[in-house]
Input
Amino acid sequence: MARIKDNYVTAGLSGKIGKLVFKTNKKGLTYISLPPDRRNVISTKGQNKLRNNFAKAVAYAKSVLKDPMKAEKYQAGDNKSLYVTALKDYLNQHKAARKKAARLIINDNFVLKHHLSVRQIKALRDMQKRGRISNSEYQHLNHVSKPTATRDLQDLVKKAILIPSGIRGAGSFYEIMGSED
Output
């Protein structure tokens, strides 16, 4: 890391220009370096899970920006941007949905009462851990096509077990009925 001396152009500079990283310490000295090499870093499952959840929140926030109907919901008058408000809302809803889903008891009586398939049971058990499920997550979990996943999820909605998020397209998901705490 190189230290820059007496240069009024870079004095107090902090950030990135091209591939160079500029840092200023507490004494006001500016240092220049290359970014750290992260090619050999292996993320943990927890880090990947958080990264994926945040990516879904970003997709949801972008869909809110594109859709004026969704954007109306977030025009509450506070000074935060629409994007940040939608992002925060998605992440907070996810926490509440996970708590509600964890309370769902899937036993033999529940399965027989609602005539659930093995795929639907598997999805509900997954929702107990994660709080919500999207169509694509259902497809990957059960190794089924998009139409099959849609039919199964819509069947759970008709049986009043799941409720759709109200979002269409990117960022849409299903939650356990009544998880809007």
Summary: Residues 45-176 form a domain with the Arc Repressor Mutant, subunit A fold (CATH 1.10.10). The chain has two domains: 2-33, 45-176. The CA atoms of residues 7 and 30 lie 9 Å apart. The mean pLDDT is 81.
